[in-house]
Amino acid sequence: MEKAFLGIDIGSISTKGVILDENNGILASEYIWTEGDPIQAVKKLLGLLEAGFDKSRYTIVGTGTTGSARKLIGTMVGATVVKNEITAHAVGTTTFYPDVRTILEIGGQDSKIILVENGVANDYAMNTLCAAGTGAFLSSQAKRLGIEVEEIGDYALSAKHPVSIAARCTVFAESDLVHKIQTGHAKEDIIAGVCNAVVANYLNNVGKGKRIASPVVFQGGVSKNKGVVAAFEKALHCPVTVDANGHLMGAIGVAILARGSKERREFDFSVENTDFHVRDASCGRCSNNCEIICVYRGDELIDSWGNRCERGSIRTKA
Prior knowledge:
- By secondary structure, the protein is α/β, with parallel strands linked by helices.
- It has three domains: about 1-90 and about 250-275, ATPase, nucleotide binding domain (Nucleotidyltransferase, domain 5, 2-Layer Sandwich); about 105-240, ATPase, nucleotide binding domain (Nucleotidyltransferase, domain 5); about 275-318, no CATH class.
- Helices cover about 35% and strands about 25% of the residues.
- It has nine helices and 13 strands.
- It has a five-stranded mixed sheet with strand order 3-2-1-4-5, sandwiched between helices. Strands 8-7-6-9-10 form a five-stranded mixed sheet, sandwiched between helices. A three-stranded antiparallel sheet has the order 11-12-13, covered by helices on one side.
- It is globular.
């Protein structure tokens, strides 16, 4: 049997999964919505990956998780590697673009920038406060304008006189956009203005004080929007590369990290049919009063975290 490696990137909006062979070839991949339930999202993801994966030829011997719910999902799937998003995206991107200097990433609800020197991430910044520079903002404005979010790029590229949209925050941006609609500006000019506002917000917040050097790679769901890509190229005065699998790069990166780990553990897809649930426990044994997260497989406690001292440690049977 040939070896394969599973990577899962679990975010608040979307859940991504890939299975790689030993040469970084993608054997199966999926991108689905998390819908506020990371456990059920991962179960669905695994079912879809299993359906497109040749289990007669490959055995998954390493599993990695990243993203906002990486520890929870890592416990659920028995991950051999659990890493933060910065590390996962940097490893994935530099594997395929070894000369990259700047990684731009915009997802559904947050965004990040990673600066790379000699193939190693040496600086980064994240933004989780303002939605004006994220995919959620683009989706809501597309709905307001009566178009599908997938159409934004084509509309933006056809604009002749892009309008100026306030980029400093969601509230001001939406107010400005409504005003532009009411004054009769062409829809494509408004949409181009929205794309420019997303880029301006990103550069003035996430990219503030950062030296953005070329080559630049743009990833995350918003990288599929041609209007935002064009706005970045105009603002940065350089080409911006978008990988066909850029929306999966976090999952790819953590799968590569699992391949590089010495730990090997065969993955069993039966986890998708197993009952997992989470309970909170309040310690109360000292003034910290830690809220401890307990993960159960059926009635069995399999992991816990959140305690800040040994008195809050909850022992598992393992």
